[in-house]
Design goal:
The complex is a heterodimer of chains A (287) and B (768).
Chain A (H helix, E strand, L loop, with lengths): L4 E4 L3 H11 L3 E4 L5 H6 L7 E4 L9 E4 L3 E5 L4 H5 L2 H6 L1 H8 L4 H4 L4 H6 L8 H6 L3 E5 L4 E5 L4 E3 L2 E2 L6 E7 L6 E8 L10 E10 L2 E10 L6 E2 L1 H7 L6 H14 L10 H20 L4
Parallel strand pairs in A: 1-3, 2-3
Antiparallel strand pairs in A: 4-5, 5-10, 6-7, 6-10, 8-9, 11-12, 12-13, 13-14
Helix pairs in contact in A: 9-10, 10-11
Chain B lengths: L23 H5 L15 E7 L5 E7 L1 H5 L3 E6 L29 E2 L5 E7 L2 H8 L3 E6 L6 H4 L21 E5 L2 H7 L2 E9 L11 E6 L5 E5 L4 H12 L6 E4 L15 H13 L3 E4 L2 H6 L7 E9 L5 E13 L5 H11 L9 E9 L13 H19 L3 H8 L18 H12 L1 H5 L12 E14 L9 E7 L5 E5 L8 H13 L6 E5 L16 H28 L6 E4 L2 E4 L2 E7 H5 L10 E7 L4 E14 L5 E11 L6 H20 L30 E2 L2 E3 L17 H18 L5 E2 L3 H11 L2
Parallel strand pairs in B: 1-12, 8-28, 10-11, 14-15, 18-19, 25-26, 25-27
Antiparallel strand pairs in B: 1-5, 2-4, 2-6, 3-5, 7-15, 8-13, 9-10, 9-12, 13-14, 16-24, 17-18, 17-23, 20-21, 21-22, 24-25
Helix pairs in contact in B: 9-10, 10-11, 10-18, 14-15, 17-18
Classes of the chains: A alpha+beta (287), B alpha+beta (768).
Amino acid sequence: MRRFEYHRADTLEQASRLLTDLGDDTFLFNGGTDLLVEIRERLRRVRNVVDIKQIPGLSDITYDETRGLTFGALVTVGRLERLPLVCQRYPNLRAAFASLGSIQVRNRATVIGNVCRASPSADTIPPLMADGAFIHIYSRTNMRVVPLAEFFTGPGKTVLARGEIVTGITVPPAGDNTGKAYLKHGRRKAMELSTVGVAVSLCMDDGVCSDIRIALGAVGATVLRAPEAEAMLRGTRLDAATVKSAANKATEECTPISNVRASADYRRDMVGVLTGRAIKQALEAFA
Amino acid sequence: MNVTAPIEEREFKIVGKSVKRDDVLEKVTGEAEYTGDVKLPGMLHGKIKRAATAHARIKSIDVSKALAYPGVKAVLTHENVPRVLHYGSPHPRSASCTKDQYILDDKVRFWGEGVAAVAAISEEIADEALDLIEVEYEPLPAVFEPEDAAQPGAPLIHNVGPGGNLVLDPVRVNRGDIDAGFAQADFVLEGTFSGGRPHPAYMEPNVCIADWDGSNKLTFRTSTQTAFMVRGILAEVLGLPLTKVRVLVDHMGGGFGAKQDCFQHEFLCALLAKETRRPVKMEFTRHETFVAGRSRHPCKVWLKQGFKNDGTLVARDMKLVYDSGAYGSHGPGVTIVGTNAATSLYRCENVRLEGRCVYTNTPINGAFRGYGVVQSYYALDIQMDEAAERLGMDPAELKLKNVVRAGDIAPSGHPILGHGLEICLQHGIDVLDWKKLRNRDRTPDPKHPHISKGWGIGCEMHGSSAYPGIKEQGNATVKVNEDGTVTLLTGAAGLGTGAHTALAQIVAEELGVRFEDVGIIHGDTDVVPWDIGAFASHTTYLVGTAAKMAATKVRGAVLERAAMKLQVTPGEIDLSEGRIFVTAEPGRFMTVAEAMGPSRGIPAANIVANGTYEPTKSYSFAAHFTEVDVDTETGIVEVKRVIPVHDIGRVIHPIAAQGQIEGGIQQGIGHTLTEDYIIDKKTGRSLNAGLVDYKMPLSMDMPDIETIILEAAPDPGGPWGAKGVGEDPIIAIGPAIANAIHDAIGVRFHHYPITPEDILKALREKGA
């Protein structure tokens, strides 16, 4: 493993200042499950890491019926995965969290770390995006809130400026009229990166789909929404034929690449299959 | 011919029981010391600079910046290491046939080959120094496929060997009259098959530590299956007598055959330590275990067989081409074993086989569980399934009709004694009620209309010991201590299979002491008797017999001494559970400790005996029955159930044997469905050299396995009829899965791995 300098920040301000002052090749160090592997495998050049694990106030999880679910930057995937609220109200998040890495990794890794890594195949991003989550960003001059859908600018790239730190995520409340699903497609059942991931969050009012969001993972430079497919489904009763044509539409809205995990054509096919299956699974909430 | 050779029957006290392995607690608690755990005072860390080109001549190497880098103690290149041409495998003239390796050469033959080595005070500094070594290459045209490498005029990778990029002269096997055979055939099946490049991915990456002492003696710790072979090749290449090389290996995190090679890093580690006069450790990264370790030979198989309408197989014509990668390693052995294996499995009197092994500019392929046979039996078994389909027969019935039987000549050229394939197949058919399974209702479950279910059978046989390729020898020394405990000294490596436990069971059983009273000393070439290595599914069969022989001798000596003390003749006493008693008067006894210990006027006994065993070979057999679910929308194949029926002769430790079978199935499922080490065919670069994109099945991917072990066909060559089990399971599961997929969706696959994309593509072509 290549050598790097370790810095510990006790406040957000200090962490932010270190990020600015230490210059290029400085990264926040939180769970470290991705960063340390990248250093070890020489995938990322790192001179400095800034440990934020001692900063107070970033470990909270709150839920209320108007604001929804908010959790801080230090909240691990494992903690959320086991939270009864997540299991009951957000089966999509629960599925994504439970599919990330191993139990050991999930007990170190944070959801916000996975989000900020901005991998197109990150498991936590599609369901958070389909749920319309917001990101809370700290900087030394102001705080801002950005919709997750606007957070990513490319593979590994986000709107974060130097010195900005994500402090938390808010997921809108999960009402009784909502149905949610996340389906991950990989080469094996655990310890796997998504070949394709599809998240669907929908609202049903009197048997009619009043809203639906579809987010597609690992089939573009960032996690993508499928707006045209969504539009085809809104206002319908989500009958089999409509779902099928919308799923087909989703295959046209993604931009996958070919690599050792799968070909672009196969990924496109799976977007179609999984979109149909995810809608079906989301509707099971009303069965 | 029935089994007629005498196999001693007795009431077993320890053999056949799943006694607790003595290494379990230390492994579970993490206290077991592996080579990588060892830290010696003043130890340096070695790292290897690897080429980022597949075929090139080195024009120059500049190491001045690396040498000047603070903390770097030595840098080796082809310019300052001994230039000794050596074999790739440690079994000269059998597994290898041409010396084709230098420690470092002025030529690069595959992407990732080591071109220089650094020793530094930390792993980080050594790693950083690698970037400071400047290598200038003159690129050479490269070949990545055996077909291209075998073309006339293809760039030559070596200037030794038979030429034309052949690793050895083609292996040809002829039995009967092939033309007459095909003339009798009512129909002929012909097909081409191909296998990918699965990698063993053992848990413990290759690691070694070299340490020279003041007398110029090298102590070499390494994770190897063949400690004495490593000692021999290090001594040869370094120009030392065997007394000056001591190889140590304690616990190992697996090997699967691939840790029996002459590895470049082992020589470099020894030389760096010699140069610096300090201990040096070299430990592979996971990436390096792929690039610089050994994988299974990719193989292309052409198979043409003639059948009669009653299902009789009358002719078999087969050509195999194994891809050796850039060096010979075990290529010759694999080609010989894999090709010869095709004389058997399903009986056929007229056989013509040709096996080739070809160099390519890709990472080295070597020994790996199933040693060439995985490839040839995949083709043989699938084509037998196709013949059944053509005949409108149940494949179980056709396989049962054609499987080898007692009296048939084995691939090794001698008649097989313990013959069990027919029994395995029939047992599985009965247990599963196979006919009913075949004729089941195939309507899809309305809840899962996209799931197609299928059942398939795969058969295999595999030898214990590498005879006749290697004339093997197993050795054991047994000592009885004055407190009645027993020490077994063995050179057999402990890969993690539990082989040492089985050996201790055999000694305890034969000698008549408790299992807990037998201690094992292993893994020190200065102490234990010579050993050929742990491979070829032979440890229990080969070393087990040697240990039993040694135990018989010490038992005799113990009885003699006890007889003297009890004032009877040795014939009047017996030894059981650590007690020596007068047979006619069981109340008159003494313990082994009392017999061995000093008494007035008599010093303690020193009883030591060696056992040396030179076997031929036994064969183990298996039929695997498996059920798969094929998702016709995603192409994902899920193996749901496996019923492996094995005949392995006398079972020494049932749980360990079952563990071998389950592990082999896990590995075989991976090779058949997901695992393939991919080399870019344009550059020779590895595309998935790591566990991120090389996917082995994990516990969640595993089916229900209902292991059945029969003891129906013991071989007199093993202890109480025991045979090997290590390699068998990985051979049978592959064709079983491919046949089950055909049963599910009506599509034949002739290659592995069979990926979801392959399934979808085939279903579309079929117009489903």
